[in-house]
Amino acid sequence: MSGEWEPSDNLTLDSMRSALIRQEETIIFNFIERVQFKHNNVIYSSQRDSSTSDGNAQGFLEFFFLEIEKAHATAGRYKCPEEHAFFPSQIPEPILPRLDYPKRIKPNNISVNDKIMDLYVSHMLPMLVDEGDDHNYGSSALCDIGCLQALSKRIHYGKLVAEVKFREHPEEYMRLIAAGDTEGVMRLLTDKATEERVLTRVLMKAETYGSFIGQTKTVSHGPMLPHEMDPDWCKRLADVIRTIYCSWVIPLTKEVEVLYLMERACPSSPTSLPHLPLAARHIQAQNITTCAPPNSFVAPTPSSPPTSSSIPSKVGYLGPWGTYSHEAASTYFNKGVQDGTSTLVACPTIDSVYEGVRSGDLAYGVVPIENSMEGPVVPSLDKLISFYHGERGDPNNAVSIIGEVKLKINHTLACRPGVDLGDISTVYSHQQALAQCKQW
Question: CB of 168 within 8 A of CB of 72?
């Protein structure tokens, strides 16, 4: 068979829609299975620890998941274009003959499984389950794996959806991609009416499937189940699942669609296309990020400020004056600061920067996002995730990344005149500065 990609003709939105509807049910049933157990946080705790030098998985969930993926890989599961391993570098080659799958989409290496894992453990799971420890660690982890695999398949199905949509309007997509207009691509991909139908359908399915149908409380079947003790339990669970779809499943699917279309048009350098809506990649590399309301969340390049016609009157940054966030804000909005059209406002906390942008008191906000030695600034990332989709999923209250500034960090050990280095026994500093200088 030729190594050239020849798109399949049997790819239609109707076939995609049918598959996505079936995947909804798989996700919902996996969520319902997981909620029967407590959080059991111990199986995730070491995932936050530093990884080992050989890259092996950390924590019971990841250990268990990797072993399952190894078994599935030997049967060839991850050679299917619709399947994506969470540990691709650690799984073996198949022992079965490779199947000749239809080439329905262009071959690619796009995967957002790292993000799916993080969002599931940090945000989705705490919304679904009750806090506590019931010692059902294996059962909980097995349910988690089912949830993660179902979410991954559904979200990465966005590649097939994007291919179908691209074929319907190839000239328009190519024009937007050539201009680097990721916001325009996202707009063209988005069908709000379809998204609302999906959310309504998910809500109805979750409430129905979560119900204990055909059983009465007079039948002895052991401890009372959650919906027997609380008649509104099913409705609340359905609301949570709908929120997960609205806040993460649909946006991540659309991110995959944009990534696929960008790589489809520019296969040599897909990661050079900045500012996808969820900012998956450049969060990992940047130092200082600039956030803004949704109507201005795409900047021309990673380090370019808005044009003079859109320079804001107020730019908030993590203060006080003289911090690296202040330096980043001064650098990014230099033109506005120089001509007087921009005013820099020091904010006492990272939270206050985000709140100011979301409320409209600030047009833009500048916060630290990552340090090359100490890693991500967790408060900034937590707020970005919670604020990106807006309060209660309302996009009018959303905050998104529009640009970045990378700064070289220099620290100074200051002392009184005449003090020798050998005389110093105690150093007082901010915890971040101490951590960044630990090798010294």
Answer: no
The kind and range of the H/E element at 24 are helix 13-34
What pLDDT score does 353 carry? 86
* Dihedral class, residue 360 (left if φ above 0, else alpha if ψ from -120 to 50, else beta): left
Distance of alpha carbon 37 from alpha carbon 40, whole angstroms: 8
Residue reference for tokens 């894992």: 117
Q: Is 428 exposed, middle or buried (0-12, 13-18, 19+ CB in 10 A)?
A: exposed
Report how far residue 156's alpha carbon sits from residue 149's, in angstroms, rounded to the nearest whole number.
Answer: 11
Pairwise CA distance, residues 168 & 1, whole Å: 27
Amino acid 203 reads: L
Alpha helix stretches (DSSP H) within 266-298: none
Residue linked to tokens 């529009």: 402
pLDDT value at position 34? 95
Residues 6 or more apart from 352 whose CB is under 8 A from it? 316
Alpha-carbon span 196 to 251, nearest angstrom: 13
Q: Using one digit for the tens of pLDDT, what is the confidence trace for 234-249? A: 888 898 999 899 889 9
Length of the chain: 440
Phi and psi, residue 315, nearest 5°: -125, 115
Q: What is the pLDDT of residues 169-190, one digit of tens each?
A: 889 998 888 887 888 888 899 8
Question: Helix axis angle, 250-265 relative to 158-168, nearest 10°?
Answer: 60
Contact (Cβ atoms closer than 8 angstroms) between residue 289 and residue 331? no
Report the greatest alpha carbon distance in the chain: 85
What pairs with residue 317 in β-bridges? 346, 366
Dist. CA 239–CA 321, nearest whole Å: 44
Give the Cα-Cα-Cα angle 162, 164, 169 (nearest 5 degrees): 90
Q: What letter would DSSP give residue 92?
A: P
Asked whether the beta carbons of 366 and 332 are under 8 A apart, the reply is yes
DSSP assignments along 31-56, one per residue: HHHHTTS---GGGTGGGGSPPPTT--
Q: Cα–Cα distance between 344 and 315 in angstroms, integer? A: 5
